């Protein structure tokens, strides 16, 4: 499908959100769809269809699929990917808008990096709250959901970019709110335990 300015902006928003969740799944999905000629991506993203990009992204996606479901190890993996997801999301946004003016390209790149940063940060906050759970199923379910959302939003961005962008922004808002709620709950819990056993036993309203 041809990408109008509005569709291109929507593609950047959706792809950046997906990259913040799982950058390898996002790159692999975009590249595979282009390689199979199921979509026509902006010309600047032609590189994603190259064999070496698909192989590298596919292998790294497979590695993340496993590592991201192992409690504790997933936190280390995601922390290290702060230096990968955000720059690659910015690069995808930069390349997708390569035919625009330098000012618009810089704006798109900044937006892509910012959206990926918010998504990645919210993901890490929620994951940090879920990972300590003694049973592994919640961590596996959350990671699998993130993978599915990343692939689904990326696919949607290539067929219905405006709908994909709206979905991404709604999910991002929900993730940010969830991360803030978890942070506040953790802070209240630490404050209660930090104020001594008397405060921990005190009932609400006493």
What would your notes on this structure say?
By secondary structure, the protein is mostly helical. It has one domain. It is built from 8 helices and no strands. The protein has helices at residues 5-35, 51-67, 73-80, 82-96, 102-130, 137-159, 161-194, 197-201. The radius of gyration is 19 Å and the shape is globular. The chain starts with a helix and ends in a 5-residue tail after the last helix. The model has no long low-confidence stretch (mean pLDDT 89).
Q: Which terms summarize this structure?
A:
single chain, mainly alpha
Task: Find the structural class using helix and strand composition.
Answer: mainly alpha
Count the domains.
1
N-to-C SSE string, H for helix and E for strand: HHHHHHHH
Beta-strand percent range: under 5%
Oligomeric status: single chain
Major sheet size, sense and barrel closure = none
How far apart the termini lie comes to 63 Å
Shape: globular
**Which percent bin holds the helix content?**
over 70%
C-alpha Rg (nearest Å): 19 Å
Low-confidence stretches: none
Mean pLDDT: 89
Q: What is the overall number of helices?
A: 8
């Amino acid at each position: 499908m041809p990408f109008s300015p509005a569709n291109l902006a929507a593609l950047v928003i959706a792809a950046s959100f997906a990259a913040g969740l799982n950058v390898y799944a996002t790159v692999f999905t975009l590249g595979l769809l282009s390689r199979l000629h199921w979509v026509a991506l902006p010309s600047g993203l032609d590189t994603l269809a190259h064999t070496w990009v698909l192989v590298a992204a596919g292998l790294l996606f497979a590695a993340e699929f496993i590592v991201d479901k192992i409690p504790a190890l997933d936190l280390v993996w995601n922390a290290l990917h702060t230096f990968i997801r955000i720059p690659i999301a910015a690069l995808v946004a930069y390349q997708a808008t390569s035919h625009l003016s330098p000012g618009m390209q810089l704006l798109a790149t900044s937006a892509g990096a910012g959206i990926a940063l918010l998504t990645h940060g919210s993901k890490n906050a929620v994951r940090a709250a879920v990972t300590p759970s003694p049973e592994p199923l919640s961590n596996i379910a959350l990671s699998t959901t993130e993978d599915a959302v990343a692939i689904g939003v990326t696919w949607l961005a290539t067929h219905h970019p405006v709908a994909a962008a709206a979905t991404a922004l709604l999910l991002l808002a929900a993730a940010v709110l969830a991360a803030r709620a978890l942070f506040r709950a953790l802070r209240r819990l630490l404050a209660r335990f930090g104020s001594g056993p008397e405060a921990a036993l005190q009932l609400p309203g006493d």
